[in-house]
Amino acid sequence: MARSARLSAAKVRQVLEAGKYYDGNGLFLRVEPTGSKRWVQRLTIHGKQREIGLGAADLVTLAEARDAAIENRKLARAGGDPLATKRNRVAVPTFDEAVQKVIELYSPTWRNAKHAAQFRNTLSTYAGPMIGAKPVSEVTSADVLRVLTPIWTSKAETARRVKQRIGTVMKWAVAAGHRNDDPCAALTQALPKSGQKVEHRKSLPYQEVAGCIATINESAAALSTKLALEFLILTAARSGEVRGATWDEIDLDGKVWHIPGERMKGKVEHIVPLSSRAIEVLITARQLGNVGLLFPGIKGGKPLSDMTLSKCVKEQGFPCDVHGFRTSFRTWVQEKTNTPFEVAERALAHKTRNAVVAAYARSDLMEKRRQLMQRWADYLGSADGKVIKIGGAA
After folding, report:
1. How many Cβ atoms from other residues are within 10 Å of residue 54's Cβ?
2. H/E element, 268
3. What do you get for the CA distance between the two ends of the chain, in Å?
4. Is the CB of residue 179 less than 8 Å from the CB of residue 56?
5. Angle 113-126/95-106 helices, nearest 10 degrees?
6. Which residues contact 277 (CB under 8 A, 6 or more apart)?
7. What angle do CA 211, 215, 216 make, to 5 degrees?
8. Where do the DSSP E strands lie in the chain?
9. How far apart are CA 241 and CA 49, in angstroms?
10. Based on the number of CB atoms within 10 Å of its own CB, is 390 exposed (0-12), middle (13-18) or buried (19 or more)?
C-alpha cells in the first residue's frame, strides 16, 4: 500500500493479508501471518530510527492510535523520548510477573487448578532460572532458544509445552503494549526436528475388549470400579465423563445419558444413547444405594480416580490406557460396520472441524447412534467375547 494512502476503520477491520499498512505520522498497522494486528509507530528519537508499539488493533482504535502517534511525534520533535515516557508510564513486568498475570487472565477458562499449576511449574522449572527476572520486553529469541536447547531433543514433549507457554506469555506482552513481537515466532526453523513421535494412548484391539471386561469382572476389584469400566467401554465415553456422572444425568426410561456441556471436553452438551447392557449396568449400580455419583470411590461420595480405573485394567494384564477403549470402539466401527463417518464421530463427541459440514450437521443422529451403541454392546456380549455379566453367567 502506498504511504500516502490513509487508513480507515473499515480497512483496519477487513485487511487480512500480512504486511504493513501506513497511515500518517509514522503510524502503521502491522498484520502478522497469524492474522493478529497491532499498531506500530516509527519515529526518529535522538537521531535514531525507533519503533514504538501502540497496542493490539482489537484493543486500540484507529482514532486512538492516531492521537497517540501525534503526541509521540510532538514529544520527539521537542527532544523528548516517547519510549522512555511509555516505560515510565507503564511498568514493564518481569517474565515471572508476566507468567502470573497470564495465569490470572486464563484461569477462569481452564477446567481445573491443575492446569494452572502445570503452566506455572513448567515455566518456573525451565524458563524461570534463565529469563524469569528479565523484563518481558527484553526477552529475545536467543533467550528462548537458550531455554529450549537443553531439552528440545531429550524431553521433546516437555520442550514443546514450554515453547507454547512462553509464546502465550509473549503474546500477552504484545497485547499489553510491553513489546512489539513474539520471540518464539522466529524459532520455527531454528530448532531441529526432535525425531520423537507423540505417543498416543495405548488401545486394546477390539477383538480383545470383551475378554478384558470378563477378566475385570472376575477380579477382586471393587464392584463400583468394575461397573464404571464396563459402562465406560459400552458408551465409548471419556474417563472423566464416567467418573463424574451423576444420577440426575440419567434417564432410564428414555435410555439416555445427558452429559452437561461443562463436563465435556468440547464444552457442548452430549447425549449418549444407552444400550440394553448399559442399562443393566446402571440398574446394578443403583442397587448399591449410591445417591449422587453413579460410581463413587471408596472415599465418601468422592469420584473414582482415573488411576483407580487404569490400575484395575493393567493389573489384569492388559497393557492399555482407559482412554484407549475409545480407539477400540472407533476401530471396530470402521472395520466391522458400514456406519457413516458423521455417526461414528458424533458417538465419540468429536467436533466437526469442517465448518461447512458442521453448519449442516443439525441433527444429533440419535437413532442411528442408538443402533450403533446397541450393536457394540451386542458384539461385546457375543459368544466370541464371552462376557461375564456382573452377578450373572457368561
Report:
1. 24
2. none
3. 76
4. no
5. 170
6. 234, 377, 380, 381, 389
7. 120
8. 19-22, 27-31, 37-45, 48-56, 250-251, 256-259, 270-273
9. 57
10. middle
Q: What is the helix (H) or strand (E) element at residue 274, kind and residue range?
A: none
Within a domain: 392: no
pLDDT at 61: 92
Residue 115's pLDDT is 81
Below-70 pLDDT ranges, the chain: 1-5, 86-90, 111-112, 193-201, 300, 352-364, 383-394
Task: Kindly state the cell numbers that stand for 123.
Answer: 515455566
Residue 278: what pLDDT? 95
Residue type, 85: T
pLDDT recorded at residue 383: 39
Based on the fold, state whether residues 262 and 341 are members of the same structural domain.
yes
Give the CATH number for residue 112: 1.10.150.130
Q: Residue 372 is part of which domain span?
A: 206-380
Q: How far apart are CA 270 and CA 330, in angstroms?
A: 17
Rounded CA separation 368/343 (Å): 7
Q: What is the pTM of this model?
A: 0.52
HSE value, Cβ hemisphere, 13 Å, CA-based, for 227: 24
Give the pLDDT confidence of 62-92 residue by residue, as tens digits: 999 999 999 989 988 888 888 777 665 557 8
CATH code, domain with 49: 3.30.160.390
Sheet with 27-31, side-by-side order of all strands: 19-22, 27-31, 37-45, 48-56
pLDDT of residue 89: 56
- C-alpha grid cell, residue 176: 499489553
CA dist., res. 101 & res. 166, Å (int):
13
What percentage of residues in the chain have a pLDDT greater than 90?
Answer: 46
